[in-house]
Amino acid sequence: MRIKCVIKEINTDINTVDTKTKQQQNMADISASEDGLSLKMATGVPSYKVILHGEYGVGKSSIFRRFMNNSFTTATGKQSTIGLDQCSRTINIGAQDVKLTLWDTGGMERMSFIGSSYYRGAHAALLCYSVNNKDTFTILSQYILDIVMNAEGAKIFLCGNMSDQVPRDGGVNTVTDADLEQFMSQCEDVLSGVYRVSCKDCTGLEEMFRDMARVLHQDAVSRMTLRRDLIRPGQTPDRDITTNSEKRRCC
């Protein structure tokens, strides 16, 4: 079954289970969030939460260190990371400054426990795999479903790490371009960006962070513009948006 079809079914089940009260509360939360973002755009720097996700050992913490202070630690010099961590950076995209706050699992996925606070309020997830370990790639569909179910509405970006460690002859355990193209064709409606990076030599990382900031900010601006268009004078945001949402579900 195609991944996007499975995700569509999950979203349908979630909508069926939700009560009208919960829907109204969710719309109120979205309204408050967008109002806050609008205020930040007008008076300061818009901020977006990005969570790291993927199998243990694919270099999520290395990506986090590069983002935090542009440092890299070799495998022999690494210390085990246990516990959530986060770091914020301001990135310029054209004439606009955007703040990304990156969250790292800190190795908690090894214990099969990542709390709800990790997903809460996430605008995006950076889903990572190792390009020289096909096992970390073939399991990505499970992580996508996990993100969809726990971080509703978050955009998903795909990151192939350790590009510097690909053997010259390719290797049987290497994720090939054909593997990636097939996966992308199954997730064409799910992925918002696809990147290939190396934390060791810092290849592609800054470009990835900047592109993610651009996509997230453009999406936020588009959603706020649409929301303003949906709200007519004399009507409340919660009532109008909920009504439109209900109409769309009936179609």
Description:
With 251 residues, this protein is of the alpha/beta class. The chain has one domain (3-8, 43-71, 82-250): P-loop containing nucleotide triphosphate hydrolases (Rossmann fold). Helix content is 47%, strand content 18%. It is built from 9 helices and 6 strands; from the N terminus they run H-H-E-H-E-E-H-E-H-H-E-H-E-H-H. It has helices at residues 3-17, 20-43, 60-69, 116-119, 134-138, 140-150, 177-186, 205-230, 237-250; strands at residues 47-54, 85-93, 96-104, 124-130, 155-161, 191-196. Strands 2-3-1-4-5-6 form a 6-stranded mixed β-sheet.
Keywords:
Rab; Rossmann fold; 251 residues; single chain; GTPase activity; Small_GTPase; alpha/beta; six-stranded mixed sheet
Question: How are the strands of the largest sheet arranged?
Answer: 2-3-1-4-5-6
How many strands, what sense, and barrel or not for the largest sheet?
6 strands, mixed
Measured between the Cα atoms of the first and last residue, the distance is: 24 Å
Structural class: alpha/beta
Shape annotation: globular
Question: Overall pLDDT, averaged?
Answer: 78
Q: What is the number of E strands?
A: 6
CATH class: Alpha Beta
Strand proportion: 15-25%
In the CATH classification, which architecture applies? 3-Layer(aba) Sandwich
What is the number of domains?
1
Give me the CATH fold name: Rossmann fold
Question: pLDDT below 50 for ≥5 consecutive residues: which ranges?
Answer: 16-36, 239-251
Radius of gyration: 19 Å
Q: Give the helix proportion (percent range).
A: 40-55%
Keywords: GTP-binding, Nucleotide-binding
Pfam family, one: Ras
GO molecular function: GTP binding; GTPase activity
InterPro entries: P-loop_NTPase, Rab, Small_GTP-bd, Small_GTPase
